[in-house]
Amino acid sequence: MTEAVVLDRLGLQLGGRAILRDVSLAIGRGEFVGVLGSNGAGKTTLMRALLGLVRPSAGSIRILGRPAERGNIAIGYMPQIRATLGAVRVSGWDFVASAARGERWGLPLLGAEARRQVDGVLDMVGARDLARRPLNELSGGERQRLLMAQALLGRPEILLLDEPLASLDINHQHAVVSLVKELQRDHGLTVLFTAHEINPLIGVIDRVLYLGGGDAALGGVDEVITGPTLSRLYGAPIDVVRVDGRIFVMAGAHSLERDCHGHDHGHGHDLGGGRGHGPYVRAQAAGPRGEGRSHV
Amino acid sequence: MFEYDFMLRAFAASAIVAVVVGVVGYFLVLRGQTFAGHALSHVGFAGATGAVLVGVSPLAGLVGFTLIAGIGMGLMGERLSGRDVAVGMILALSLGFGLLFLHFYTAYATQATSLLFGNILAVSASTLWALSGLGLLCLAALAVLARPLLFATLQPELAEARGVSLRLVGTLFLAVTALAVAASSEIVGILLVFTLLVGPAAAANQMTTRLPLAVLLSVVFALAEAWGGITLAFYTDWPTSFWITALAGLIYLAASLFRVVWLRRNPAQVPATPFTATDAAPALDPGDALP
């Protein structure tokens, strides 16, 4: 069986800046992978590359055995939620439905079958009632559900979720993570889920993909989230502290992920400054599940 | 009042324009590009006065200039968003050039007034034909464009991933907007295009969040404002454009009040769900900013 995502010596650049260099890894079908890394580490860029929106500067990307290209309906994509959505006075149903083969020319009128599909994905995320309300009257968590429904339109095999937990409180974070887990299990989806913090994903994800300093490390949480591995990715000394099943990533006295999550967006950049000079970490995922190991 | 030919032409011309601006205006409001529409009309002023100066029909100059400006703004795309100052400078510069062209062409003082504030009661048969052509072109283009345009407006990143060219769709839409602006300048004049282009759509947006209904309401409001304005002008002898702006303001106000009252009477429309707890405003991650 072909892998869901295979990166082969992949290089990615954005505006002349190297985001990833020489990264090779494979993600198996049905895997739930948490994608972590500081701001600017390239989580969004990697997703856009998988969608065919950013061309590799080196190497190749294969999605379900075929080169990454735009318009691949096998991929469902949930972009980072935009603040401007809060001003859109359009019903949730119409918002979700706009993505139903929305790339075709013509009038945005849906046939009975397409309407059933929209209702279907709304049911999958439990947002049928929610969708009757306008977007601007929904909370952030409610909007996330609609975005998730939209990503599921067309029954994709791979789901790319970009920061679904952004600015949600702990309870809502938990609800979103369990929803995604349920969808992944029930429909055999491959999920790539970016996040600022590992803790909401512990016990749910199969593996973690950590980006930093142009490199990537893929493996089990306990293999990747370690002092030595993260120190290499950040190019700065990092301590990993485990307390009561939770993991805290610290640079000096600061909890890194905590800082990233709050207002201080610049912090992560500073730490990533060692990018290009730092020691080399290469993720080499041997198999689809769990066998991947970072060579430290 | 229907015994006069000029009145019949006025009703027909404003009906064509109302349908077009009702639909175009809805998308313009949804996309948050109303200022672009306003700026396009001012660019049209320079085009129209320039055309008069060299002996071409003002409508031709209007269409030509707004179309070029619309396509130019569309191609600039994202780089123009948030550049209100740059757009505003071009807007003012265009008005300045329009004034200069009028200065050189001193024969008609009324020409300036009718360009700036419209003269719907003086629409000629040939202008009516031209408006019909423009209107049909706009509606035909929108019929092809509407689906990807809506997708690109509501979910640009996803639309792009599915193969929609945001630049192409955005440029085509601004070209259609330019034609709609030129057409509505004939009715309410360049300075008051905003009233027909944005007023009805904004009012419709207050009344409903269902998309097809909102577009329909937008058209109905535009039609009511245009025809109501002409009728009131006929009986009062006040300027048509004044009445249209007055009606547009009134309808927008009424729609806003309707929304407030309706929301208060129907709290059940905001049912409690497990997800209603207030979340912090969602924020983009600047570090992973899109190119």
Describe this structure in words.
- Chain A is of the alpha/beta class.
- Chain A has two domains: 5-74 and 156-295, Rossmann fold; 82-154, no CATH class.
- Chain A has helices at residues 43-50, 92-97, 112-124, 140-152, 170-187, 221-224, 227-234, 256-261, 266-271, and strands at 5-14, 17-27, 32-37, 58-63, 66-67, 75-78, 158-161, 190-194, 207-212, 215-219, 239-243, 246-251, 254-255, 282-284, 293-295.
- In chain A, the strands form four sheets. Chain A has a six-stranded mixed β-sheet, sandwiched between helices. A four-stranded antiparallel β-sheet of chain A has the order 2-1-4-5, covered by helices on one side.
- The longest helix of chain A has 18 residues, at 170-187.
- Chain A starts with a strand and ends with a strand.
- In chain A, 54% of the residues are buried.
- Residues 259-296 of chain A have low confidence and may be disordered.
- Chain B is an all-alpha fold and 291 residues long.
- Chain B has a domain at 5-190: ABC transporter involved in vitamin B12 uptake, BtuC, CATH 1.10.3470.10.
- Helix content of chain B is 76%, strand content 0%.
- Chain B has twelve helices and no strands.
- Chain B is globular.
- The interface between A and B is large, with 70 and 47 residues.
- Chain A: One of its GO terms (molecular function) is ATP binding.
- Chain A: Residues 260-296 are annotated as: Disordered.
- Chain A: Residues 260-272 have a biased composition (Basic and acidic residues).
- Chain A: It holds the Pfam family ABC_tran.
Structural key phrases:
heterodimer; A: 296 residues; alpha/beta; Rossmann fold; six-stranded mixed beta sheet; four-stranded antiparallel beta sheet; 9 helices; 15 strands; 28% helix; 26% strand; disordered C terminus; B: 291 residues; mainly alpha; ABC transporter involved in vitamin B12 uptake, BtuC; 76% helix
